[in-house]
Design brief:
The chain has two helices and 43 strands. With 758 residues, it is an all-beta fold.
Length: 758
């Protein structure tokens, strides 16, 4: 035994064969930025003793008394004991050099890096490799979870608490705590177990559990998550109790039974997987017998989403949601589709990518919700795109496609389409201007099998050349506004488009629809999506866009407007509806976007018909956004001649932090044409460092698509009202959804307005 005298402090190194009580410190962030972890019990850590061998005990004290016969060393006054990662601070301690046992009395502080303990005494049994502390107050170092224990014992992998309490609330008078006959904290697994536990709120016992396991860090663990309670006119009282399975580090699952008083019990399940080359998520929801329907029908939803990569060139993606009936989303809801969605889109895709080639093979399917004309499935579609630089600003590209379509209801209604389109383009770009000239030739061949539509031909084909020329001028100047310097840009542009007319009435409509005529859409080469209709064109598009940039090159304002002038009216139509142009010019497209300040934005888009002096479409949004917890959005939109009904609506959406603990979220959409509220939602949440409670309510139109044959309800509509209550105990479980996320439950979910670029 070596003795070293340092400024009246004894340092004694004892060679004993006892293992240190050691555990890895769990990694966990603070519960909240406004809820700091309580101050550690060890405010001033013990300075490490240099060159202390592993397994040896180092001691500092004001005075030491060593009995050479019993080989027991006694230390008095400001005693500091260090053995491996463990530290002990007390007023007096005894160390048996033969057994390695340590006994300390009086006020004692102990830590092993995982837990800090303040106790009345301390005893280390070297033979059992376990430390005992009575009358203890403890605190987990990283998480701040704390409590009291009549007796606390520690081994290398376990903290055992008898007659103890546990809470993650940082205050001395916690809102909630768990008191138990025995609590075990497993350092390696980062979870705890409790036997004969009472759950207390505000000091009042509210729940007794013979056994419970709970997380003590953010690491995942199998177990029950906190339930959600709700009530609505359509479903009655609801309760959902999820159970989480931590299958593997890259794999988990959740099963969530959902009881609805008016419908029955719905089983919901989710499985997720993650690898270095891809990820997947699979969901299913099944209600065996819906008591609210006349035939007690079974109702279900299932969904698959999978991404995969093979090397640098191959990619695959699958995504699809399937439901039992058109009203499933309206009645039962889903996290994967909105209640106002009019269709479900599913597709599987395989891509090959290289420097010059892009090849895609896909299968896609649309399910229209409501009694509409059945769409076609694409089973399969193979597309390729080849592009190369010929030099001298000349580019050559070749687009080709082969698609097979099948009607969802009529199996004999099929078609195969082959399309080839080479294109030669010349693009010249200079600081002050740029222009583009394109010349392409498209050939399309069909093989159609049909029974009902006699207007279609068996093997129609179509050959169409296209010439497109577009030029832009980039103007720039510096201006001063209210003693601030800005850069003002003006970009006028003009485009000429020529496509000759071809009779395409013998071709069925498989994947084509009319595209939006906004400002950017005015300069497209095609009026219809897909390839079944290529509209003839002999037209000039004129437009201009003007922007204002501040000294930090941030765009603070933009105004764009444009219009198409027809030299000849387009005769190409889509289905039986008249989509041919009959006027000499298109609607005037006008877009305005303003960054009023760093937090406020204004966005407006209008399509105005100068011939009829009326607005066809408009959408205006004003949003103040401080962060995701504080924003207010006002909106107005109009649509004329939509299913012979005009639409004009105003809306308000807001999320406001009333105080550090109270948050309010609400939206409201009002129909000016019918003088009624179409959708309203409000949620109030209280949240502090220990717990949270969320109360929400909604009122929305009942979109019964099957009853209304997919059309808007005539007369006064039915409304569905509901409330939901959710209670969250922080530290034992959590709900990561913000109040802004909850607004997606409404018919008109939150949409972020267009942000000007920086």
């Amino acid at each position: 035994m070596a003795k070293i005298f340092q400024t009246s402090i004894w340092t004694v190194a004892l060679s004993v064969s006892c293992a240190a009580v050691h555990a890895q410190q769990p990694s966990r962030p603070a519960l909240s930025e406004v809820c700091p972890v309580p101050a550690p019990l060890f405010t001033t850590p013990i300075s490490p003793i240099k060159d202390l061998p592993i397994g040896a005990i180092g001691v500092r004290a004001d005075r030491a008394d060593i009995d050479s016969e019993s080989e027991v060393a006694s230390f008095f006054g400001n005693v500091e004991v260090q053995f491996d990662q463990q530290q002990l601070r007390t007023e007096q301690a005894q160390i048996d050099q033969q057994t390695g046992n340590i006994n300390a009395s009086g006020s004692t502080l102990f830590t092993d890096g995982y837990v800090q303990v303040s106790s009345e005494n301390f005893r280390l049994n070297s033979g059992e490799n376990r430390a005992f502390l009575s009358g203890a107050e403890y605190q987990l170092t990283e998480t701040g979870a704390h409590g009291k224990a009549d007796l606390l014992s520690l081994s290398p992998a376990q903290v055992l608490l008898e007659g103890s309490t546990f809470t993650t609330c940082p205050s001395d008078s916690p809102v909630w705590q768990m008191s138990a006959q025995e609590i075990s904290l497993n350092e390696d697994e980062a979870w705890g177990e409790a036997w004969h536990a009472k759950f207390e709120l505000f000091g009042v016992p509210v729940l007794y559990l013979p056994y419970i396991n709970f997380p003590v860090t953010e690491e995942r663990k199998s177990g029950f998550l906190f339930p959600t309670f709700g009530s609505s006119q359509k479903n009655g009282f609801e309760v959902e109790v999820p159970y989480y399975f931590n299958i593997a580090p890259n794999m988990d699952a959740t099963i969530a039974p959902r009881y609805m008083a008016e419908r029955g019990v719905q089983m919901q399940a989710e499985f997720r997987t993650l690898s270095t080359t891809g990820s997947g998520q699979y969901n299913v929801a099944y209600l065996e017998s819906d008591k609210s329907t006349e035939d007690n029908a079974a109702r279900y939803l299932w969904r698959v989403e999978q991404t995969q990569r093979w090397g640098e060139n191959w990619r695959a993606y699958v995504n699809g949601t399937f439901i039992s009936d058109d009203d499933y989303l309206n009645d039962l809801g889903s996290d994967f589709a909105g209640r106002a969605d009019a269709q479900l889109y599913r597709h599987a895709q395989l891509d090959y990518l290289s420097d010059d080639w892009q090849v895609t093979m896909r299968a896609e399917d649309f399910e229209l919700l409501g009694s509409y004309r059945s769409p076609y499935r694409t089973m399969p579609q193979i597309k390729s795109f080849y592009a190369t630089d010929l030099g001298l600003d000349l580019d050559f590209s070749l687009f080709s496609e082969m698609s097979h379509f099948q009607n969802q209801d009529l199996s004999q209604d099929t078609a195969t389409r082959v399309h080839v389109e080479p294109q030669l383009s010349f693009h010249l770009e200079q600081p002050g201007y740029d222009w583009l000239a394109e010349l392409s030739y498209a050939y399309t061949y069909y093989n159609q099998e049909f029974e009902l539509e006699r207007s279609r031909s068996k093997n129609p084909s179509r050959s169409l050349p296209t010439f497109r020329w577009r030029g832009r001028v980039n103007l720039e100047r510096t201006i001063d506004i209210q003693q601030q310097s800005y850069t003002h840009t003006l970009q006028p542009q003009i485009q000429y488009l020529y496509i000759p007319y071809r009779d395409q009435t013998g071709i069925g409509i498989y994947d084509s629809t009319l595209m939006q005529d906004d400002y950017q859409g005015l300069f497209r080469a095609r009026r219809f999506s897909g390839l079944d209709r290529i509209a003839d064109a002999n037209q000039v598009t004129i437009g201009a866009s003007s922007s204002l940039f501040d000294q930090q090159a941030r765009e603070v304002a933009r105004v764009s407007f444009g219009q198409i002038y027809y030299f000849e009216n387009s005769e190409t139509q889509l289905l039986e509806s008249s989509t041919a142009t009959t006027e000499s010019r298109s609607d005037l497209a006008l877009e305005t976007r303003f960054r009023i300040n760093n937090n406020m934005y204004f966005n407006s888009s209008i399509q105005y018909n100068l011939e009829l002096d009326s607005t066809r479409k408009s959408q205006t949004t004003l949003e103040y956004r401080l962060d995701e917890f504080n924003l207010i959005q006002l909106s107005h939109r109009t649509v004329t001649n939509l299913l012979e009904n005009d639409v004009e609506q105003v809306g308000m959406l807001g999320v406001v932090e009333l105080s550090p603990t109270w948050q309010l979220a609400s939206n409201w959409y009002y129909d000016l044409q019918n003088n009624r509220t179409n959708d309203a939602f409000i949620a109030l949440q209280y949240s502090d460092c220990c717990w949270a409670m969320r109360i929400s309510g909604y009122r929305r139109i009942n979109r019964n698509l099957e009853l209304n044959a997919g059309m808007p309800a005539v007369g006064e509509p039915e409304f569905d009202n509901g409330i939901s209550v959710q209670f969250i105990i922080k530290g034992l479980g959590s709900d990561n959804r913000s109040l802004l996320d909850m607004l997606e439950q409404s018919l008109f979910g939150y949409r972020h307005p267009f942000h000007l670029s920086n």
